[in-house]
Amino acid sequence: MLRSYGLLVRWTLLRLRSALLLLVFLQTLISVGIVVGFSFLVPQVDPTTALYLSTGSMTIGLITVGMVAAPQMVAQQKMSGTFDHQRALPVPRLAMLAADASVWIVLALPGMFAALAVAALRFDLSFTVSPLVVPAILLVALTSVAIGYGLAYAAKPEVAGLVTQLILFMALMFAPINFPAQRLPHWVAEVHEWLPFVYMAQSIRETLDVPSGGVALLPFAVLAAWGVVGLAVTYRVMARRN
Amino acid sequence: MVLQIEHLTKVYRRKVRANDGVSLDVAAGEVVGLLGHNGAGKTTLLNQVIGLSRPTSGSIAIDGTDVVTNPAHARRLCSMQPQSHAPLEGVTPRQVIEIVARLRGASRQRARQRTAELIAALQLEPWARTVGERLSGGIRRLTAFCLAAAEPGRVVMLDEPTNDVDPVRRRLLWQQVRALADAGSAVLLVTHGVAEAERVVDRLVILHHGRIVAEGTPAALRGSHDDQLRLELQAVSEEAAAALRPPSGTPAVTGRRVLVTIDAHEAAAAIDWAGRERTAGTIEEFSINPASLEDVYIGLLGDEKGDQKEVDHVA
Question: Which of A139, A164, B52, B278 pairs as cysteine with B47 (C-beta 3.0–4.6 A)?
């Protein structure tokens, strides 16, 4: 299992090699862009807005990689027939997933920290960071990749491509990631109670700047549940025999 | 027997019977060629062996172990070169062959050694360090073969390994296929290159509409046609080809090319007739040769329009 994992990580890195720099660059651009760009939309940046923007940009960064870039890569592999080729190898399905997920997570890190640094400078923020920030980032990244993969494996490649665009659009504009949920119409906020976005944002925000009431644990539980669903769907499709 | 397939039937959702009661054995050291038209059920058969698709009924065993209920076992015991593209994006043949050999359980040293051997044997050195995107179709296909052959399974399955490959490397490839069997693997080979396959396979199995219509050694399959000749004509146009009415035999028309299998005693009459056709300007040239395996195949399965004849089992 571990041996397969190592070899698969190497293979994935080689496969992405040509696109790697571009991916890191784009992802950094998006994360930093949110911090800078959204602050134009809001002329008076109060401390709450600043906190939401800076931590939200990190969340969006992870969503871009896990739920947009990763599934698009899978869709491409499905179309080229690579998918069936790899499924015929004597490799534990879980090792295949774990290898891909690790590469994507590592890939998301530079952009995330760049955005945080820019935000701290731009808004002159200081954080009270909890050690839970590490598991929070990992969980958000993993859940993102798991959902992205579930989508890419279950849907037709063309459909997956469109849905990922929709996810990015929704995460940017209509999800309480970069702003508090109270600003959304009531019913939209209610829908979000069942979706992972708000919990992703909350877990990262609260671990980076711990609120007076402490870090809420509900988001961790909800994210774990979403992650399990995503992994289960992916695993099922990977192991399916038609 | 390494690979034992019994009464294998695969029915797809729209009631298509892709495999219909197929029974087939492959022993260690044996190369078995699987022939048949497109859609005859060859790829479906391979996919069931390696566990990418599940049989509707029937059994598949490798070294006596049932692999239908244990597809992970099948993947360990089989290596396969699928028809689809090999995953070569971003990797060079040398890198990916080594990685896949190691994923299949080879030590680092053995993986390196086998990779070097295969690259040398198939004369792939000029491309060994070129990334997949820049490789031609033939080189990609050969690399895909190496992925299955570097650390071969007890069963090696190759789905049209010679497509796009140049004639020189085709020969080298056949040698490597033979070498896999000689090293103890059971090799199951899907191909359309009937004439080429004849040289490398120990046995041939011909599939038609999901059923085995003939099987045996190339010599045995040809045996019933020993007293037969092949009359090959090149017509001036497709219309002229379709209109040709030879004195005996049923013509199989492919574009301007017409093949007729005739009995040896009818040769003189056939030559007379073909001579007259050439004088009349309906054909450009003709030749008569001993019937080849390709003629047997076409005789069994009909021409490309899918004409089917009743056939006997040739054991």
Answer: B52
What chain B residue is nearest to A1 in terms of C-alpha separation? B103
Band the pLDDT of B210: cuts 50, 70, 90.
very high
pTM of the model: 0.81
| B85:A242 CB<8 A | no
Test mutation, A3, A10, A11, chain B, max B CBs within 10 A: A11
Interface of B with A in 77-106 (CB under 8 A): 78, 80, 82, 84-87, 89-91, 95-96, 99-100, 102-105
Domains of chain B and any CATH numbers: 3-216 (3.40.50.300), 222-301 (3.30.70)
In chain B, beta strands by DSSP E = 3-11, 17-26, 31-35, 57-62, 65-66, 78-81, 155-159, 186-190, 203-208, 211-216, 228-235, 252-254, 257-263, 283-290
Statement: residue A206 has pLDDT above 90: yes
CA trace torsion B275, B280, B281, B282 (10° rounding): -80
What range does the domain containing A76 cover?
Answer: 2-239
pLDDT value at B306 more than 70: no
Q: Kindly report the number of other CB atoms within 10 A of residue B186's CB atom.
A: 28
Within 10 A of B279 (CB to CB), how many other CB atoms are there? 9
How many structural domains compose chain A? 1
Complex-level ipTM: 0.82
- Side-by-side strand order, sheet with B211-216: B78-81, B155-159, B186-190, B31-35, B203-208, B211-216
Residue B301 has pLDDT above 80, yes or no: no
Element (DSSP H or E) covering residue A168: helix A157-173
Name the residue facing A81 among B72, B85, B96 (closest C-beta).
B85
Stretch A101-113: mean pLDDT: 88
* In the block, residue with structure tokens 């069997």: B181
CA distance A56 to A177: 5
**Which residue is closest to B88 within chain A, CA to CA?**
A15
Instruction: Quick: pLDDT tens for A122-150.
Output: 888 888 889 999 999 999 999 999 999 99
- Average per-residue pLDDT in chain B? 88
pLDDT digits (tens, 9 = 90+) for B71-84: 889 999 999 999 88
B23: its two tokens: 């029974």
Residues of chain B numbered 243-302 and touching chain A (CB < 8 Å) = none
Whether B54 sits inside 8 A of A242 (CB atoms) is: yes
Distance, in Å, from the CA atom of B153 to the CA atom of B173, rounded to the nearest integer, reads: 18
Binary contact (A88, B50; C-beta < 8 A): yes
Please tell me which of the candidates B76, B84, B89 has its beta carbon nearest to residue A84.
B84
Strands B186-190 and B31-35: parallel
Interface test with A, best of B103, B130, B154 (most A CBs within 10 A): B103
> Which residue from A10, A17, A241 is facing B53, i.e. has the nearest CB?
A241
CB contact under 8 A, A88 and B84: no
* Separation CA B174–CA B170 (nearest Å): 6
Tokens of B225: 């046609």
- The arrangement of strands across the sheet holding B65-66 comes to B17-26, B3-11, B57-62, B65-66
